[in-house]
Amino acid sequence: MLFRSENRPRIIREIADEVQGILMAYLPGDEGGRAIASVLYGDENPSGKLPFTYPRFTGSLIPYDHKYSEKLDKNFGENGYNPQFSFGFGMSYTTFQFSDLTLSRDSLSADENLIVTVKIKNTGKKQGKEVVQLYLSDLVASITPSVRKLKRFQKIDLKPDEMKEIRFILSKKDYEFLGSNNKRIVEPGEFEIVIGNLSKKFKLLK
Question: pTM of whole model > 0.85?
């Protein structure tokens, strides 16, 4: 187990694959030692997720909501989007499985709400918490869109073999972006929703 207490990410690519786990504690304060010990000894099941993109190389600070062009490598493997750990990454002493990602509509107007449901199950042997993260991708737009953006999240607590269904609602504001006139607009087109390892596409109509 590698333990990291820091106020900024250090480059650990040469050792990251050689350890069984990494505990990111940031700057935990005076009582941080107790919290860290409870995680290391298994008394507390970790459930935190990275609030930033952890870089693999020095200076490779491309954020999670990067453009498609920023995925390209222009510097011998040390440029482009290739993080050590992605935004929203985090492990647990148990495992979770997503299933049955469902959209209320395959196509809809911007003024209609889209209901997204997904099931999550604790497939391990220890009770744990998981953050269900919903990402939205605008696949084609007049201004180059981000690869994906986090639009909703919910943290739930599951016992071993327990399953729950999570429900999210997306509205017009979620499809908006800054247009060429520097005003927020919504354009019709194809979008994709990603939760865990599942994805579904839908069309936004005029």
Answer: yes
